[in-house]
Amino acid sequence: MNIVLGITGGIAAYKAPDLVRRLRERGAEVQIVMTVSAEEFVTTTALQAVSGRPIRSNLWDKEAEAAMSHIELARWADIVLVAPATAEIMARIVSGAAPDLLTTICLATEAPIALAPAMNHVMWNNPATQANRELLEQRGIHILGPDTGSQACGETGAGRMLDPETIAATVCGLSVGKGKGALEGRTVIVTAGPTREAIDPVRYITNRSSGKMGYAMARAAAAQGANVVLISGPVNLPPPTGMHVVNVITAQEMFDATHEHVGNADIFVAAAAVADYRPTHVASQKIKKSKETSRIELVRCPDILTSVAALKRAPFTVGFAAETQNVEDYARLKLEDKKLDMVVANKVGDGVGFDRDENAVTVLWRNGRQEFPAAAKSDLARSVVDLIAQNFQAAQGADTEPRLTVLSNLD
Ligand code: CTP
What tens digit of pLDDT does each residue of 10-23 get? Predict the structure, then answer.
């Protein structure tokens, strides 16, 4: 694995030699790219000694560029890891600015990017940094940590860089290298977000789904090498790159789009919160208020998940079960009733589940279950997709039970 390790100017940069050593122990080739301010915290001599390669820092270094240009470096990388990642580098990557070698590589690479943020806890919690974190995650950049605890400034809170062993294990465990994914060549359809069912030209019925979990599942499947078709209801999320996105509004449109693509699918993941009912009649003009009470008659929407699971040549089918109570019992019923291969169950309501960045789920299948504790939806999605890939492969004919995913580095 070829890793471009970007080191930026935070006190945690002193841990970089240890991180390089741990990455190399796992067989990685590490090319260090430092920012100017990183050189205030750690010496190039130490880093050159542990990495065994000349350190790169200057975009205008003619000799180094002649040996391997910044574009070649961006292509050489199987992953670009920035550790420590300051608030500054996060903001620059978000904006697409590329004033130095490291940011240029981040812009020019097609490899996955992982950032291990490290900063004062107030800086980490600043709305600007949090907005940047969210945008980076939405674009598929892996955010590792940060950890919580005592900080170099003497204060306590979230913002410590994860320890080098955890970062090395996580980065080397991300099976996102070029052509190495567990779902390489497979086609995965993911539905995400809510649907909208019109009442009249200005009103509709919908729900609180943000689409974040479905989008994270789609990105995690793409990172595992899958060809992903993301069928999305109306959400406020930027369209992810590296996959085919189909935008729909209603349950019927989502049903139609799913059946248009499902013939080629190996795996179907129904993460959308599809309306169960829609108004029987959609008024052609805005409904005016008149009586004290009013009724809207509803009719059932097609159940997309059930219809896919019932196909003669059904793909490996994964449903979601969002419940406010008896989560696991209801989810297991769904697994059996809808004839699913797996179901991802989570509790919703009371500020849990919907429209949050974190989630905790229990995944159930016929002979097993696995709990995933609360974690960022992007991390959780990676773990759940790993588990889906293992069960899918087992269902393809392997005679062994699927391995259990180890979550150690991801929560
Ligand atoms: N689903 C679907 N099409 C629908 C409704 C739901 O594909 N019309 C999928 C969802 O994407 C999710 C799962 O089915 O994967 C949810 O199951 P469901 O039993 O419909 O959940 P609820 O709507 O919560 O059902 P209930 O109210 O009966 O608990």
Answer: 999 999 999 999 99
343 lines ligand 1 (CB under 6 A): no
334 lines ligand 1 (CB under 6 A): yes
User: What's the pLDDT score for residue 334?
Assistant: 96
What is the residue with the minimal CA distance to atom 12 of ligand 1?
320
225's tokens: 């090498």
CB under 8 Å to 163, separation ≥6 — which residues? 15, 147
Q: Which of 106, 153, 172, 301 is catalytic?
A: 153
Do 67 and 53 touch, CB atoms closer than 8 A?
Answer: no
**Chain segment 262-311, per-residue pLDDT in tens:** 999 999 999 999 999 999 999 999 999 999 999 999 999 999 999 999 99
**Ligand 1 atom, smallest distance to 320 CA:** 15
CB atoms within 10 A of CB 263: 10
> Tell me, what's the pLDDT at 170?
79
Domains 2-174 and 187-396 share a fold: yes
Check if CATH label 1.20.1300.10 holds for domain 2-174.
no
* CATH homologous superfamily for the domain 187-396: CoaB-like (3.40.50.10300)
Q: Are 235 and 213 in contact (CB under 8 A)?
A: no
Verify whether residue 153 is a known catalytic residue.
yes
- Distance CA(317)–CA(325), nearest Å, equals 24
Task: Please classify residue 168 by burial: count the beta carbons closer than 10 Å to its beta carbon, then call 0-12 exposed, 13-18 middle and 19+ buried.
Answer: buried
Domain limits of the chain? 2-174, 187-396
pLDDT score recorded for residue 65: 83
17 prior amide bond cis, ω within 30: no
Q: pLDDT tens digits, residue range 303-356?
A: 999 999 999 999 999 999 998 899 999 999 999 999 999 999 998 876 665 667
Cβ atoms of 372 and 388 closer than 8 Å: no
Distance spanning both ends of the chain, measured CA to CA = 24
Q: Where are the alpha helices (DSSP H) in 145-250?
A: 164-173, 212-223
Instruction: Please give the Cα distance from 2 to 144 (Å, whole number).
Output: 19
